[in-house]
Amino acid sequence: MSETSFCPITNWSEDDKPREKLMLKGKSVLSDAELIAILIGSGSRNESAVDLSKRILASVNHNLNALGKLSIAQLMNFKGIGEAKAISIIAAMELGRRRRSEDAVELTKITSSKAVFEVMQPIIGELPHEEFWVLFLNNSNKILFKTQLSKGGMTGTMVDVRIVFKIAFEQNATAIILTHNHPSGKLQASDADIQITKKIKTAGQQLDIPVLDHIIITETGYYSFADEGIF
Description:
Layout: H1 18-25, H2 32-40, H3 49-59, H4 64-67, H5 72-75, H6 83-105, H7 113-124, E1 131-137, E2 143-151, H8 161-170, E3 175-181, H9 191-207, E4 211-217, E5 222-224
Parallel strand pairs: 3-4
Antiparallel strand pairs: 1-2, 1-3, 4-5
């Protein structure tokens, strides 16, 4: 942006200044760039905070999930973003992620595979490694407890079937749902996924604690064994 075309936010009308706009019209009318501009407070000598925010968003194709994955160092590569501003952006993105996670906790009754996705995506959907979780349900299909059973690398993870049902008995669960994430984004069950599912399902049948589904979670979607007829 040239110096002749630059107009600092202080010279904008009251209706257009992000802070004032939020106070006068409410938070929902602000663009993503305007909200980020409030976070960082100021731009550089030749670029407003809003224009700087637009430039940052453009670098991640205006995807807030992608913005949330940027490191402090990556954000500081943008002229006008120092360590303090980078930390403010990262803190805000993390608060948003945690809020989604808390909202999902309110959805305690599992009525579909999508409901499982809504609960688990904020927890494991954006991780760079695999995690295997189990949801323990009562006879109303409400979540009594959920826990991580194992954590692996990019290629996979291992699950101890005995621990799954030990926890199920401790929680007085009447059914369980298996779930894990695919960091690759691939929505397809591997042979290992199918084998561990069969192993746990067989044990559940013997112990009268049925496995209702196994759901693979990615950042944007899910794959349900039950929906796909694998069960």
